[in-house]
Amino acid sequence: RTSRAAPAGEMGLEPLFQAWSYFRRRKFRECADVCSQLLERPPGEQVAGAAAWNLKTRALTEMVYVDEIDMDQEGIAEMILDENAIAQVARPGTSLKLPGTGQGGGPSPAVRPVTQSGRPITGFVRPSTQSGRPSTMEQAIRTPRTALTARPLTSASGGYVRLGTASMITNPDGPFINLSRLNLTKYAQKPKLAKALFEYIFHHENDVKNALDLAALATEHAQFKDWWWKVQIGKCYYRLGLYREAEKQFKSALKQQDMVDTILYLAKVYLRLDQPVTALNLFKQGLERFPGEVTLICGIARIYEEMNNISSAAEYYKDVLKQDNTHVEAIACIGSNHFYSDQPEIALRFYRRLLQMGVYNCQLFNNLGLCCFYAQQYDMTLSSFERALFLAENEEETADVWYNLGHVAVGIGDLNLAYQCFKLTLVNNNDYAEAYNNLAVLEMRKGHTEQARALLQTASSLAPHMYEPHFNIAILSEKVGDLQRSYTAAQKSEEAFPGHVDTQQLIKQLKEHFAML
């Protein structure tokens, strides 16, 4: 006679195995809860207490884990108070800080807009492309509002604040591990526990100093033969701003164990030290040992793009697509490069490819709308922008869509619609310098000189790196006979875009005027 089947509710997994099952399925909250119950048992009843502790530590770390390779937020303090000045006047093509040093034959600022650091706008938002390098503290505090908050980006905003406060969220009773009472020397002698504990301290508690102490003790216990600990010490030094010490650790780790991640960390150090050529050589050496490694090829392409060498960047992005034909960043960057090279039809193919891959966001439909407009596929333009407005997640994205709709309106000759669109742009984002500039041009057409002047001054103070507001102020001042102000503005325009022919002609005319006086 067969036995009766047990009801579904009676079947139970061994708790530690259940916690491990939750961890494998990335249900970290449930995993931590099961481990907590195991650890709350009296000491006599605890089975595999160390295993439960280790598993809970790893689950809490995974809940807030951020890959340090792509997490690179350079705050105001690091930019303005940077003590790692290597060369004040860098040779052309060797620095990321000086805008005009690229030798890459990319499109001019008249065609492709630039960021405040003087580099062309990229096709893909990365931490390094979001905040430019401001020249003054006032400009730093005013402009890079990239964390989508009212505060400018500091190294304490964004990810690090979230990581540091995570311990309060995950444990209402207080932190899971009291770091001040830990005997780090004891844990450093248990390699399996030490690695989990290090990641918990570094990522979850955001306590870099204690993490560094643990890593130093652990690497000593491993007789300096464990490359993993050297990489972790390098990460701690990098976070503390000790870039040369970080470089030594990463180099030492690479000698022991050749790893792609270590190469990427070392390249990050060189880029922070403003040595892009060294980083490029490092990536190229890495490619000899790891041929076809996508992250290394992509790293080379990013550096070329930041150095304004657009043609080389496009070649390397194409190499990325040969290895991984679904790489979103490469497709987006090649698409934007074709768009600014006056090939909107080809750009449209790349953006359509992203749509087929399942990327479905405001930015993509915004770009599709622009490509359709410039490729004269007018039936798709407005529906793309409508979809982009529907998918916009915040006011900055909405402002971008209205600004582009303003451009479309100018293109079809409906200046009243353009005026409304630029106004709506400023309603959504009051710091949109390009919209102020274009509104000023429309006001000028109506003959409202004073309003135009006020709008242009706002635009030039918000975005000193743009040449258009300065040039427009120069033209406006020259028309009303204020030659001195016109000359000052024209010089600023020439500084922002040295190759602008109209600015050069205006300066020449003004100099002739002054010579006659």
TrEMBL record:
The gene is Ttc8. GO terms for cellular component: BBSome; ciliary basal body; non-motile cilium. One of its GO terms (biological process) is non-motile cilium assembly. InterPro entries: BBS8, TPR-like_helical_dom_sf, TPR_rpt. Residues 127-138 have a biased composition (Polar residues). Pfam families: TPR_8. Keywords: TPR repeat. The keyword Hydrolase does not apply. This is TTC8 protein. SMART domains: TPR. Residues 99-140 are annotated as: Disordered. TPR repeats lie at residues 433-466. The keyword Oxidoreductase does not apply. It comes from Sylvia atricapilla.
